[in-house]
Amino acid sequence: MDLVTRVTTAAEAALADHQYASFIDVLTGMNLLQNVQAWHNGRVQYLDEMVQGSPEKLLKVIELFQQWAAQRGLRREDLPPHASFIPRPPKYHTASQYPVLEQAFRLHFVSPQLPEKKLEKLREKVSAAAPPTVFSIVKASKCSQCNRELGKGELLTMQGNQPLCMECADLDHLVYLGSGDAALTRRATKHSGLWAVVVRFSRSRGRYERQGVLVQPEALEKAEEECLADADLRAARQARDAERRQFEDVELAERMAERIRELYPGCPPEEARGIAAHTAVRGSGRVGRSAAGRALDDHALALAVAAWVRHRHTRYDELLMSGQERAAARSAIREEMDSVLDRWGKL
Ligand SMILES: [Zn+2]
To answer: Cα dist. 215→155, 182, 199, 340 in Å?
Structure first.
């Protein structure tokens, strides 16, 4: 495959996948940049340290990438490449600091189909000053400033290539909040003037995983209060809803009873109320609770009345109790049913 095809193929694949293509996408797609994860994880600081290929070849790739984008009519966005675990976008992304290469790593060509919202997100992701990353270490280390020994599980952060303990990094006033309560974390970090992400390297998965955050103690307190207040609000709202539902049920039952008396003028009022109350009970799954029952559909009410009569005015329950099949029991009580309904003056 010639270089043009390789560049184009890699760029098209990225565009198809996420509606933009970056220089990193192209290099990765061409297998010129391997183990980009190491850079994401902060283990490798500079992108060009992992790139294979002569400078001449890279220059050619950059040129072809831009030509491809021009032909495709894509919009250019200059955004610094953003590694997941590098505290802040550094000034340089390459060890060589060669301007053409530095510039190339900022290249993103965006499809006109990429929604503006997603583009905004992309811009935010790379421009937001990321919080410092703190490592919960998996093997012993030593603070480069105070020389304190740091054991497994202790926290350190990196300044350049130098490990720093929390005290020397001025982060020791922060308190740890483990991941798990997303709402609490969101609020605590929002209120915290300074906060840090705590990660730990997972050997089995070969990557850093977020454990929690370090936040200012007062920010955590405030966040906790807000979450508690929220829980109280929720409980109050639930109580209000229950009250309203009860009221609705009463109202619905009254309207149902009225309609039953219209349909069955001979039905004693207390029985009409009984049928209505029985069928209107919320959550009972009885016919009165169905959409038709709520709308006082006459057919639904007729079913409710029939069920009431069957159970209260015939031997139906007795027959079922004695082991009769439902169908047989129903035909056995048909006459009894009809005579009650006739008496009630079913229209
Ligand atoms: Zn120290």
So the answer is: 14, 14, 14, 73
Distance from the alpha carbon of residue 303 to the mean position of ligand 1, in angstroms: 79
The CB density around residue 24, as the number of other CB atoms within 10 Å, is: 21
Alpha-carbon gap, residue 302 to 8, rounded angstroms:
71
**Which phi and psi angles does 124 have, rounded to 5°?**
-60, -45
What are residue 193's phi and psi, to 5 degrees? -65, -35
Q: Which two tokens stand for residue 290?
A: 């169905």
Q: In what order do the strands lie in the sheet with 20-22?
A: 20-22, 107-110, 75-78
Interval between CA 24 and ligand 1 midpoint (Å): 36
Distance, in Å, from the CA atom of 159 to the CA atom of 5, rounded to the nearest integer, reads 41
Q: What is the pLDDT of residues 24-78, one digit of tens each?
A: 999 999 999 987 877 776 667 788 888 988 888 999 999 999 999 999 999 998 8
pTM: 0.44
Distance 102 CA to ligand 1 centre (A): 34
For ligand 1, the distance from its centroid to the CA atom of residue 313, given in whole angstroms, is: 86
Give me the residues paired with residue 158 across strands.
Answer: 163
Question: What mean pLDDT, rounded, does the chain reach?
Answer: 84
Q: What is the whole-number distance in angstroms between the Cα of residue 167 and the centre of ligand 1?
A: 6
